[in-house]
Design brief:
It is built from 14 helices and 20 strands. With 412 residues, the protein is α/β, with parallel strands linked by helices. The structure holds flavin-adenine dinucleotide.
Amino acid sequence: MAEIMVLGAGMVGVSSALALQSNGHNVILVDRSAPGSETSYGNAGIIQAEAAEPYALPRQLQTILKYGLGLSNDVLWHPSAIIQMLPSLLAYYKHSAPSRHKQISEIYAQLTSRSTSDHTPLIADADAEELVSREGLAMIYRNSKDFAAAAETAERYRREYGVTSRILSGDAYCAEEAALKKCPAGVVHWEQSWSCSDPGELTARYAKLFNHRGGTLKYGRAETLVQTSLGWCVECNDGPVEAESAVVALGPWAPDLLKTLGYRIPMIYKRGYHAHFESPLVLKRPLLDASNGVVAASMTQGLRVSSGAALVNRDSPAEPRQLERGTKALKSILQIGQRLDEPQWFGTRPCLPDMLPLVGEAPNHKGLWFNFGHGHQGFTLGPTTAILLKQAMDGQTSALHEALSPNGRISA
Ligand SMILES: Cc1cc2nc3c(=O)[nH]c(=O)nc-3n(C[C@H](O)[C@H](O)[C@H](O)COP(=O)(O)OP(=O)(O)OC[C@H]3O[C@@H](n4cnc5c(N)ncnc54)[C@H](O)[C@@H]3O)c2cc1C
């Protein structure tokens, strides 16, 4: 019997399996599909060391109206999803109050600031150096008012969190980014962020490393999880698997399993889409068009354009309006070729109202552990919360562990 089973082989689950294995534990990783084939595949691939403050809900009437009336490409919403997620959204709104958001950001920044150094040994040991670029992330602004505000925020981030950036005029940035055909008003180049040309492949390489180090990967269904006299048991394709402890790292699907065990997880599902395009040039670094809520990043498959958040029911059909609008806007400044013929991809950012992942032991079940809810930055934070989980499972405590612990944050 294994000591620990990790359910879910996205960036968070695979990193958890590696961290627990490094402590000498016998670990089994279980997923219904191949490692890194869901949200950890389709994201924008940025390891966001700059993201010290998680996305809050807007509280200014003007911005709320803009979102409510669908005038911004950052957010799209469906009335039925808003009704279904209303209690969670109200809690999110409360946690977005400036003073509370500041407290949360102080915790969040402790995670994002170490994200690149926590990925470093995994990238090296997984032989994945060619997938990672350390050129940073460019946020481009189309008008001088937004650019001035962004430059001020960048200066504040430097002061408060030590996040460094270069503030460049649009012309200066055009001189270094050959793919731009028209210059924006200005650019903030976040220097400490990294990017990955194939996030699904990086997750798969981490899983291969886990395998090479003696870990076992199995195909199975998390919804069959039951508590036994010895620990936890799950049905896998080649029979039942038992372990003393189970880690739930199922990303946006974690609430489904935990509901069967009596937990109500107040998850907010923020959908995003991507599409790949032929591109004559490789971008020097990913580019976020802040005025149009869209990211362009050069990937193995082509230029990946990813959209902002859609508050829709997790399993509702694809409706890629934001992606289409964002792509149209990008085409006015960036050289973009034909769209590749692929089925429309979308995935869900698993967000919690207090914007922090849930990492720690389940309140009512011995040997059941959580590591999910990484929202907009799960690809960034997988290795970091994996280390914190390992420490928590070893009995270590700290203010950071307590802040991420499920205790008092979910109904059970
Ligand atoms: C458009 C978009 C762009 C993004 N860009 C970025 C970015 O640039 N940087 C960043 O840091 N983050 C980004 N994110 C967020 C990031 O992708 C997620 O936070 C992260 O991938 C979550 O990882 P995870 O391992 O928790 O979930 P997942 O990668 O979804 O893994 C969950 C796993 O659980 C498995 N599973 C689910 N149900 C079952 C079951 N019943 N039985 C067995 N297995 C099951 C799935 O198969 C899957 O492998 C983006 C997200 C989107 C949608």
